[in-house]
Design goal:
With 712 residues, this protein is of the alpha+beta class. Helices cover 42% and strands 16% of the residues. The chain contains 27 helices and 20 strands. The strands form 4 sheets. Strands 1, 2, 3, 4, 5 and 6 form a 6-stranded mixed beta sheet that branches. The protein has a 5-stranded mixed beta sheet with strand order 8-7-11-9-10.
Length: 712
């Protein structure tokens, strides 16, 4: 915290003010009120200090029955402890916690959050201790204040900032109100950033852009996120910001165009008997800038959207039906975030309609409650622990940490991987990369174990799913089945996919360096990098080899099953099974004469049979003799792992089969193909042998050889 103030007019706030319909608080007036309150002595016990009257008014608008006495006590402690401290702009320092608290009060935060907000800088910047806060205001307030208190720079040096964010995120994992206070604190600091050196402004703005704005988006606090975007935009992209400001100024009639469409929509809904409030919602600066980049020249309706507020969920769809009936809908713009809410709690119907004059207007349809959550996100949810009994184990984890039952999936993932990133630089880099992901998907676990779903960022692969589900045990992952089909680990997952991860039974296997090319989540990247550092020999490139090396097994030239051919009394030089399909009893077979007077026998469904017929070759009638032995070629498809060849040959030997020849192709996308020609003492055991080979860990398919598979 320790924020420095500046001219509040330095940032582009015109759009924000119009959007909210409430003027910004006057910091100088707050400063005077705080000083007058300090010199006039304590306020009477039956009323609040005048300096927080605006906070009380905003708070009562959302919580009419709230007990405000605790806010009065918190203000008295904050004002007295910060007395004599001033911001760089000259206002008393108490104006900062007052302004932060007002931001949260306007969003609908409950009393405990506002109390902690008033006190959020006391432990960091004054002589007040955390124990004192705990004695006077309770454990919850103390937890929130501690969560937003920076670590000491003298202890952490250059790592102080990332370690402060790590501390805040861990605290947020137990209570999301910690991050609510931090976001409001950063918003007020960004509003008052102009007196600082340009290079420091840029540094703070970049951290806000890379970390705080994505966190505001993920927590659903759109009201804070949009204003933070505009403030960062003005600092980091001043020319584009000025261009956007001029574009808005040059289109003063943009609101009229949307207003005309709003009147038409209001009339349609009134005639349909649907109670709804239709509002014109101007875009903020960054939204206008993005729309201009996407669409080029902007028209009147492009400078804002229509917001339709109704009472019930069913009314949302009723409004949608009327709009699509009475106007021309732009189907490509329709999105249903009510049936499928976004990962940040956001719910709304999005559509676009074309008015009779050709103007196209985007429309948001939601209930009043959805709108409150869309604007305030987790702040609107209040105390995440309400209803929990503080003296039961249900409110604490096994390690004594508080448990937030509303903790979103992305936050759980973040808290998991940060434990594996002890290095501040790794944590800071991974945090920014993680927060840069704009969307989230949910995939289902095929094994049915709890929890049945895995939350991942959009673009995640099977590698990410493996580490999200199994942690470091994913080092032995051999492959995956996605929606029931075998897939390489590089497969990018989609929302709603079902994933089954296949792990090796041994602990020798490990990830390859190529996995880093497919890992999107910090958890996967950190775990893979750690394993490769611990096993440097695994990261070394393989020695140059022949493009298709083969592993050969000494051939056993024993004869196959007994075969007979009917050649009208002629005696063939030999009758032998074809190597392309290696028929064995009781396969249906057919034969063809070949050079040298021999007869080659194929399975009836072998593709070579059709090829021979196409060449005009006449088939020869062949039949099996009484000998049960035979020769067969099998193809085993598997994921590569150490010891696989030994395990397969052991399974083959268990059935008494002799290996005539074997061929192992080089791995491709972690998959390996083994081709075995085997002599079976009894061909009736072929099906059982194939089942035994499939049971070898890492093997996912065993089949008879076929020419189309390139086996000969």
């Amino acid at each position: 915290m320790s924020a420095e103030a500046t001219n509040p007019e330095a940032a582009p706030t015109d759009v924000t003010v119009r959007r909210r319909g409430r003027a910004r608080i006057d910091l100088r007036r707050l400063g005077r009120a705080a000083l007058l309150n300090a010199t006039a002595g304590p306020a009477p016990r039956d009323r609040l200090p005048d300096a927080i009257s605006h906070v009380a008014e905003a708070h009562r608008a959302h919580h009419p029955e709230a007990d405000l006495t605790v806010l009065g006590r918190a203000y008295v402690l904050a004002e007295s402890s910060h007395r004599g401290q001033f911001r760089k702009s000259g206002e008393p320092y108490i104006t900062h916690p007052l302004a932060v608290t007002l931001i949260l009060a306007e969003l609908g935060a409950e009393t405990t959050t506002l109390t902690a907000s008033l006190l959020h800088d006391t432990v960091e910047d004054t002589e007040v201790t955390l124990d004192q806060v705990r004695r006077e205001f309770g454990d919850e307030v103390a937890y929130l204040v501690d969560g937003v208190t920076k670590v000491e720079k003298i202890d952490y040096g250059a790592a102080a900032e990332p370690e402060t964010f790590r501390k805040m995120l861990v605290a947020t994992g137990s209570d999301v109100r910690v991050m609510s206070i931090k976001l409001a604190d950063r918003l007020h600091n960004m509003r008052t950033l102009g007196v600082m050196r340009p290079e420091k402004q840029a540094r703070i703005a970049k951290v806000t852009r890379d970390v705080l704005i994505p966190l505001a988006e993920r927590l659903g606090v759109q009201a804070l996120k949009t204003e933070l975007e505009d403030l960062v935009f003005a600092i980091l992209h001043p020319e584009e910001c000025e261009t956007t400001r001029a574009l808005i100024a040059d289109n003063p009639g943009a609101g009229d165009a949307l207003g005309a469409v709003a009147e038409q929509v209001t009339t349609v809904l009134r005639e349909a008997g649907i109670g709804a409030e239709v509002l014109v919602r101007p875009r903020h600066f960054v939204s206008v800038h993005r729309a201009r980049l996407k669409r080029g020249e902007l028209r009147g309706c492009d400078f804002g959207r229509l917001l339709v507020l109704v009472a019930e969920d069913a009314d949302c769809y009723a409004v949608l039906g009327e709009l699509h009936t009475c106007f021309t809908p732009v189907i490509s713009e329709f999105k249903d975030f009510i049936a499928a809410p976004k990962f940040n709690l956001y719910q709304s119907l999005h559509t676009a309609i074309a008015a009779p004059d050709g103007a196209v207007a985007e429309v948001l349809i939601r209930t009043h409650r959805m709108h409150k959550v869309a604007e305030a996100g987790v702040v609107a949810l209040g105390n995440p622990h309400v209803g929990q009994e503080s003296d039961t184990a249900g409110s604490q984890a096994d390690d004594g940490e508080r448990v937030d039952p509303t903790r979103p999936g992305w936050l759980s993932r973040l808290l998991d991987w940060q434990q594996s990133a002890p290095d501040p630089d790794t944590f800071w880099t991974s945090l920014r990369a993680d927060l840069a992901e704009d969307d989230e998907i949910t995939v289902f676990r095929a094994d049915g174990s709890a929890p049945g779903t895995i939350s991942l960022p959009a673009g995640a692969s099977c590698v990410d799913a493996a580490y999200a589900q199994h942690g470091e045990a994913a080092h032995t992952c051999l492959g995956a089945r996605v929606n029931g089909r075998l897939a390489p680990l590089s497969t990018v997952l989609g929302d709603g996919d079902t994933v089954q991860l296949l792990l090796a039974q041994d602990a020798v296997s490990g990830p390859s360096p190529e996995w880093l090319d497919h890992a999107r989540t910090p958890a996967a990247r950190i775990a893979i990098t750690g394993w490769l550092r611990a096993h440097p020999e695994s990261a070394a490139p393989p020695a140059p080899t022949d493009p298709r090396p083969q592993v050969s097994v000494p051939a056993d030239r024993r004869s196959g099953a007994e075969l007979h051919a009917d050649l009208d009394g002629e005696q063939p030089a030999a009758v032998r099974p074809a190597g392309c399909c290696t028929p064995v009893p009781p396969d249906e077979i057919t034969g063809f004469r070949v050079r040298g007077g021999s007869v080659t026998v194929h399975r009836a469904r072998c593709s070579a049979v059709d090829a021979m017929r196409g060449l005009g070759r006449e088939p020869v009638t062949v039949r099996w003799g009484d000998t049960p032995q035979g020769r067969v070629t099998l193809v085993a498809e598997s994921f590569g792992r150490p010891g696989l060849l030994a395990d397969l040959t052991e399974a083959i030997a268990t059935f008494g089969a002799a290996v005539v020849s074997a061929n192992v192709e080089p791995p491709s996308e972690q998959r390996v193909r083994h081709t075995y020609t085997l002599h079976l003492p009894d061909v009736t055991g072929l099906a059982a042998l194939m089942r035994a080979m499939r049971d070898v860990p890492g093997v996912y398919d065993v089949s008879r050889a076929h020419p189309s598979r390139g086996v000969s």
